[in-house]
Amino acid sequence: MKIGYYPGCSLHGTARELDESLRAVSAALGVHLQEVEDWSCCGATSGHATDHLLSVALAARNLALAEAQGMDQVLAPCAACFSRLASARHEARNDAEIREKLPELLGLPFTNTVAVRNLVDLLRGLAPEIKAKATKPLQGMKVACYYGCLLVRPPEVADFDDPEQPTSMEEVVKAAGGTPVTWNHRMDCCGGAFSLSRTGSVIRLGRAILDDARTAGADAIAVACPMCHSNLDFRQSAMALRGEAPMPIFFLTELVGLALGLEPKALGIRRHFVSAAPLLERQCAAGKGVS
Amino acid sequence: MARIGVFVCHCGENIGRTVDCTKVAEALKNHPGVVESVDYKYMCSDPGQALIKQSIAEKNLTGVVVAACSPHMHEKTFRRAAFGGGLNPFLCEMANVREHCSWIHEDKEKATEKAIAIGRTIVEKVKRNVPLETIRIPVTKRALVIGGGIAGIQAALDLADGGAEVILVEKEPSIGGHMSQLSETFPTLDCSQCILTPRMVEVYQHPNIKLYSYSELESLEGYIGNFKATIRKKARSVNEELCNGCGACTQVCIQKKIPSEFDAGLGKRTAIYVPFPQAVPNIPVIDRKNCARFKAKAKGILKEACGKCAEACLKGAVDFDQEDRFVTEEVGAVVVATGYQLYTIGKDQPEGLQGYGEYGYGTIPDVIDGLQFERLASASGPTGGQILRPSDGKPPKTIVFLQCIGSRDPQKGIEYCSKICCMYVAKHTMLYKHKVHGGKAVVFYMDIRAAGKGYEEFSRRAIEEDGAIYIRGRVSRMYRDGQTIKVQGFDTLAGEPVEIDADMVVLATAMRPQPGIETLAQKLSVSYDRHGFINEAHPKLRPVETNTAGIFVAGACQSPRDIPDAVAMASATAAKVLGLFSKDQLEREPTVAKVNQDLCAGCFSCEHVCPYGAVEHKEIRDRKGVLLKIVAEVNGGVCQGCGTCQATCPSKSVELQGFTDEQIYSEINALAGCVE
Prior knowledge:
Chain A has 14 helices and eight strands. By secondary structure, chain A is of the alpha/beta class. Chain B has five domains: 4-127, Rossmann fold; 142-234 and 324-339 and 514-581, FAD/NAD(P)-binding domain; 248-312, no CATH class; 340-512, 3-Layer(bba) Sandwich (FAD/NAD(P)-binding domain), CATH 3.50.50; 593-656, 2-Layer Sandwich (Alpha-Beta Plaits), CATH 3.30.70.20.
């Protein structure tokens, strides 16, 4: 399978391990990622808060490039990128005025024919292959699947899974041999882009998420968004009140990669602030496959 | 030679504003065959009608064209006038120059031209009209009422008291419907069972009412005044003639933990059971899905299992071999009163609905729906009327009530308002506060819709006297946190998020029509909306009639209704049916299809396309009784005059009276300017 690849800034910065693990997992599953040449900002955070037309145009430029480069679908692993690209498609589909302005604004033809896919969508589609090729399945690792806000919402934009009760991440975790836990905060806000401007809020929100995952008995939390990962992983030390045990936060691709028998190093797992090593060692010691 | 009179109406200014009516009358005066052409301000008024009658006599007219509004509006009026003038009413036709012309155009000159053209086409048609005679059909003065809830009970009693015989069909083992499950009713807080059960008994004892409980309509044939209903009497496994309702069988049944439908799953029942002590008829039924004996049989075990109920029955009424039976009843009218079901909000939903998984219904035991709360509050309920939460049987200190669950939420599939929830939630808060003093009742609402006699006062009472806390806003989600339920929502008046620790949550879920309503509607040939609610013939002027003559609708199967509404509708259907039964014969318009049996080749293409099943087979025999051929014949009582057969017949041997090919072609010719 060949799919256009729009990494976005995070995957070249704070979430390099998502880029690394995605590339490793894709190669193992026979998915060819073709990076969109000359890609630019998707318009997340500052872009869409500045100017509506700008926010659509920034995202649409990348879709127009993908179109020109002969792609019919583009993978946006970052949830914010996914949301921006999908929003641009939605706006262009429903707003004739914007639709007419875009080609001139972009200096590129834009027919809005490139489908935008998120990470979970891609992996869910590959679940049978993951299951078949899982040489080191997660052996029942209890995983709290955390969706955050943008993967499934707003439903008319994301057009993916149930906006209130999604199940696709759990399906991927199951395919990788993990046990998804039932918990309450999987759709809650992590604080998103307020990590720097209102750190206190992010810590308060993140703490509630971690506490709930712990109560549900999770060994780890799986995410599919660089922002969620950053907030829950990087800020975790500040969230602990009574010295609670650290909770490793994995990108979904990393868990799949582990199940496929890829080296943790190749998946970038060492880049986490909260070390996953104790958990992986525990798994290993209990004879549960993962090394 | 045709002598046609044309009467052009101004309809005040409705037509006169955009059509020059005098000019239309003048132009039509010169049309071949027209001997009289006049215009008048209000043709439907007394003087206008007198003008028509007078002209018929004076000018010896053979046909009348009234250029005015649509036939839907006044065809009957003018045909009556023509009849008064001594003309066969079907020689009078309307040229629609209002809805089809003056109302939709602005250019007066062009509109006038169009009105003239419309006038000409109808003149050409009327020239070819022939006198038709009204069809008379007999009436069976017996009514079928489908559904034994409060609407069906009221309709049956009113009909029976009015002298009509009634067949009442109820699919459940007992009549009573949802009303029998309710605790108290708004806005008076009178006990539901106290006002309902006497009426149930009255139904059972009424000499004019024949009750088929645990039965369903299998099929309905025929037409207004002459329906033939086949009713499936489902196997009760108890002989109704022998059973004396002692209840010994239910005492010995070994299956005691089946969720009771009557208690909305909160109580338990046995496999042989009477739904509730006041059931009518008080005859048990065996739930074969759960009965040990039938389960064993279904598994292929040859040895007869259990049978304790049969042993306990002193009358020998338990009959394991009973099968579904079919009875046929002839009726003249049908009242549909099948009621509602509550939107079950779990994950499994019919197509188009999405459920409310985020509210934890079905996963959190203390999240219940409105009917379940009724059972908790009811003296006959599983807790004897104490409000105790299902998970641990403790009285909840805080209950959160959510309104509009499913209703008014187009994204989730239902855009309509369920009408009763605002009131019953107010009632629930009161019942709760009266029983659990010091309890806290919090209501999340979108609007409070309390239109109805005493309703606004009632909902104010809940807030002001009983201290229910109303928060305007929606709940985004709920989850279980230990023994409490975290309810997170948004107070849109205060403009801030709220989080409440609740012990129990009651969801006011939407009212939907009963499952299977579409199948029933198809059996009855009545239309329904996209939610399955039966369509009334006219939303204002014919609210209890359907578009199929002789079939009426009452209660919540037409749209969400409260008890007063349902009862009023039921009485209205009874009045309509009794009106129908007041005549010995019904009159029907003769605009029905007629087969030319000399030409008919008996291919029965018409039979295949007829949506009403009006085509019958007729044998043509010679004098010695030798069969010559089988031809089609149209039952004028059933035919609705749609004309599909006429369009389909390969040999052009069936025609709709009043709309023959010749008439239609002459209209088209007139439009094209070809007039002989």
